[in-house]
Amino acid sequence: MHSPVLLRRQDAPARDLEAYIASGGLAGLKKAREIGPEETVRMVTDSGLVGRGGAGFPTGRKWESVRTAKDPERYFVLNADESEPGTFKDRQMIDVDPFLVLEGVLIACFATHATRAYIYVRGEYRREADLLQRCAAELGAAGYLDGLGPEGHALAIEVRHGGGAYICGEETALFRSIEGYRGEPMSKPPFPTVAGLFRKPTAINNVETIANVPDIMSRGAAWLRSLGTERSPGVKLYSVSGHVGRPGVYELPFGVPLRELLDLAGAQQDLQAILLGGAAGTFVFPQDFDMPLSYEGAQQRHATLGSGALIAFDHETNLWRVAERLGSFFAHESCGQCVPCRVGTRRQHEMLEALAEGDGRGSERDLLVRLSQVMTDASICGLGQTASTAVRSLIDAETKGLLAV
Amino acid sequence: MADTFQVLIDGHEAIAHEGETILDVLRRAQVETPTLCTHEHLTPAKACRACVVELKGSRALVASCERKAEPGMEVRTDSERVQNARRGVFELLLSQNDVSTAPALAAQAESVGADPGRYRGQRYEKGFFDDNQLYVRDYDKCILCYRCVEACGPDVQNTFALTVSGRGFDAGIAAGFGESLPDSACVFCGNCVAVCPTGALMDRREHSLRAEGRWDEERYDVVQTTCSYCGVGCQLELHVDRASNEIVKVTSPMDHSVTHGFLCVKGRYGYSFVEAGGD
Amino acid sequence: MPEDDREIRERVRGLISETGRERTQLLEVLHKVQKEFRHVPRAAAEAIEQEMLVPVAETYGVVTFYDLLSEKPVGRKVLRICEDVTCSLHGSEQLAAQAEQLLGPEGAQSRNGEVSWTRCACLGLCDKAPAALCDEEPLAPLTSAAIRKIGEDHA
Asked: What residues contact residue C151 under an 8 Å CB cut-off, 6+ apart?
């Protein structure tokens, strides 16, 4: 039985600094200050930590390019714009251990010489934003931000509130939103580490990613590698919902079979399927429930862990109706900037509506596959590029006769 | 020369200059590339995705109008992926827009082999706005290329009367808060009209003549002159009906060193005095 | 009753001075405007243009981009009902239908301007589905009784 790391305080949340320090908090920051920015980044790199937001980019590499950037003005951004349907692990992470998250932010800012830290919390998470704001103030009052800012000043941490737009979880759209604009994604390259927020070198990490950092510092890079698999070191948070007996957030080391997570969450034995990775994820059917939950394990089955969201469906569920909901989500959340996504998500939703109602013309499946290719290839950002991933996986499964309804 | 380098286009070597976009290189190499949103004097909006190309090392296709050429780049425009994506872009546009006044768009759609009936669904119905004396806005024809917003804003006019509003399929061009143009910051320079690629924005004169079935470009001569209103020296192209000797439209050449195709309200619309007679 | 435009501009100027005049504060300012006036009126955009140098049209573009901001007034209390996958498995559509019946058409203010409701994207409350947000407070699981109570208290 795995004893939780990131969620170790979930039974006794440390929402004030005193309690946090009493339970071992801030040891990671202390260690970072002892060894300096360069060694700090090296430890994060050595730990093999990769981004938990969905893209899986090595955190240490991101930090190193910002640390060594020429421009003295650079930023750290915490991406707490958790909006992937079925995902609520960052909310829980912040709620049970806000200081762990903030300690990670401080270490990141120290390691990258950040001019300022921005914490972008989705607008619907007011309580969590307020909590982070209060805890950051406590850290400041206790002097823990001193010397972390430019030229030995105290680090400034700004909590920003999202406006209610899924696309702002995309990093370049998030930057535009902080800057005071419509959250329309920009092209990459240039990547954020070169030209991010205010076109300055920027390190941006997801909440869950950053929560790993304090322990990497205090317990060592090898510690993270002692958990999980060789290619996916560490632990992962999963948001489990749908037709399960115990929905909630679960923490497991990478490599544990999907079946085990389903059992933990009290899923019935004969599920029809799950949606893994959120709206931009894929449907996974029982024949693949032995899949090891790791980046490489998912990839082998043409699935993706994405945000770690898992929605379970029983045999009564019409999966085309589920797909219709996904289609509606993407059509609503497309920023509208590029043609393949703006028009494509609408056409996709229209066809999914017809299929969910059972009054399709018969040509929808072929056309959806065709449209999917256009959206995947030609859209500006990840939203349009993945808006048809789940639909494609559903069409594949239907061809194989895996759908119950 | 230090500032030129080689790139590979569809397997052939081509010369690129420092600072050029992939599209610049494609055009010089005479590789036919469809474009809708990009404009020589405006920031690339990379929104229409008609000009996408395959770039070695890049997972998704890239907009050639925006991406700068780099030494050793390997670009493909002739792959099935590129053709399919371009066709898809035009098919999606044809499924939502009225393209009756966008011959260039229609021609490009045909040249990439787009099937106008491929996708069906809700059309783009943003309405017709006739709220001033100088130009009309038919947003059913708008493909959201961002050109008008850029021309009205930082790229040319610095008036900022227009914005993209809303999100997704409901996004559209607006003056904001339900305003008519006369109530907005609009100065009626008509530079948005000059850059609109689909006829969604149209001078009133042209719109009226079209409505009466009397618009016929075959009958118009283009007369070059210099605007007489002030000392800047803007070059005007007067589109004159040969038969009636009436001016039907005023533009300025996009390659003119003073205007770059852009005018003010007087130069573009202040021509009725010419026809007022001399007595 | 429509507020006097001059008074709105004055109050928005106050919100701006307590938040910051830089463009980067726009969303924070707009959140405060939305909370105070239940929408972002044109007069607010005018004050923003004067104080923050953001054109009126651009503010409109920003307001219409974000779901939590609106250019038209919403109710004093706003109920957002999640319509995404997990919540739809747990009956969110029936709850939305009920909201329509008890609180009026989606997006519109109730007769006295007290309440409005809308469907919304995933709220990250899927473990307590079907979920809703009542102003800033999670309401999950949302029940028929809760909607009825909102209706009785405010509509």
From this structure: C102, C103, C115
